[in-house]
Every structure is written in C-alpha cells, then in structure tokens.
Amino acid sequence: MADDVEVVVAHRERATLRVGDVFLKVDGDADQADREVESMALAPVPTVRVLWRTPPVLALAALPGRAIARLGEPSTASAAAWRAAGAAVRSLHDAPLPPWPSRRGSTRGEALAGECDWLVSYEVLPADLVDHNRGLAERALRPHEPAFTHGDLQCSHVFVVEDDEVTGVLDWSEAGRGDPAYDLAVLTMGHREHLEDVLAGYGADVDLDAVRGWWSLRSLTAIRWLMEHGFDPFAPGCEVDVLRSQV
C-alpha cells in the first residue's frame, strides 16, 4: 500500500512534506538550504540524517522519539528531558562559530518598532499590552557575545526518548552566529515553567532579562507573519498568550 503524503508545514518560504519515514523539505533559496546542511554537519548535537539532496528538495530521515513539547500544548516530557535539552543547547553554544550569521535574532530587532505600530494601528492587540511587551523586548537588544545558535529552536524541533536523551534537533535553516539567549527563549516560549530545568542542564550564567525579552520580541514580531500565513497566534498558549503572561 502506498504511503500517504502529509503536509507538515507550508508557506511562501518553504514547505515540508512527509511520506512514510521520509521528510521532503522544499526550499526555494538554494544558499539557505546549503547552509542548513552545513550547519547540521558542524553542530555537535544529534541532528537529522540527510538521505539525499536534489535542489530544491532536501530529503531527511525521521527522528526517533517525540518532540519535547509543542507550543500551545502542555508538555508531557519530564524535567530530566528538559535538562537534557538544556545540555544539548549548551554544547551547541560552546562549539566553534559558523562563518555566517543567523537571520532570525537581528532581523526581529530591526522589525520591532514597525510590528508594534501595526499591532496597535490595526487594533490587533491593546496598546497597553503592546507597549508593556515592547519595553521588555528592548532588553533583548543588548550587546552579547555571539554563539553558534540554532536560530529557530522551537520545542517541537527538539526530540527526546523515554530515557530523557535528546535524539535529534530539527530544522537548521536559520542556524548561524547569534544570541544564545534567543535559542533559550524560543525553546521555552510558552513553557516558561521549564526554563529552570533547561538552565539547570545548560549549566552557565544566563541573562534572564534577555530571555524574557526575547519571549516578548519574538511574539510581537511574529504575529503579523503568522496571521498572513494561516497560523493562529491567538490559540491558547501561543504568541498572544505569551505576551499576556509577561504582564
């Protein structure tokens, strides 16, 4: 019997399909796809096995285990699993820097003012909620020592098994030199109750104001894009709830 084709995610930048145990990632930016493959080769953490590459398609094997959590859903993973995730992030941040910057952190900082104005002008969110979170977001925009960052370390991109071992990290399309606090913030966004576990595994001093600032900054700058691409930032536990939790 033929395997069904599942659309995992699809938008104007890229799409990912699943056919059985194979994931087919279609990216119109060949340079970005090249950087993703190179980032996985350089990263000192488990990643996804590349099966083949024929631009614009990258074929990847499925990872064992399950995502540590998903935004908008309660995490069923143990505290030990979150600590293991923190340890994996630390090993990545301690690795030699890649030669290219991550696009995610810096571009969000540049977009902050315009996105906040849009959210208020179109009455997407109350002005006081936007203003409060904008003040928090600006704490993330401080000088920092760059690290090898994943750039989009959503909790759904980190896979673990029952014995609380990280089996792999997905989606390295935004990897590069960046702010280590950004990775920690994205991993724990919507699951702030596990920040302490992640930091215990991370085992290094972390600017907590910067992490919390990135929670606000990523949420504020993502809402318009999510709405335009068919996602719902107002869903329980997602970006708008993250902003409310910061008040």
Automatic annotation (TrEMBL):
<dbReference type="Pfam" id="PF01636">
    <property type="entry name" value="APH"/>
</dbReference>
<dbReference type="InterPro" id="IPR002575">
    <property type="entry name" value="Aminoglycoside_PTrfase"/>
</dbReference>
<protein>
    <submittedName>
        <fullName>Aminoglycoside phosphotransferase family protein</fullName>
    </submittedName>
</protein>
<dbReference type="InterPro" id="IPR051678">
    <property type="entry name" value="AGP_Transferase"/>
</dbReference>
<dbReference type="InterPro" id="IPR011009">
    <property type="entry name" value="Kinase-like_dom_sf"/>
</dbReference>
<feature type="domain" description="Aminoglycoside phosphotransferase">
    <location>
        <begin position="35"/>
        <end position="212"/>
    </location>
</feature>
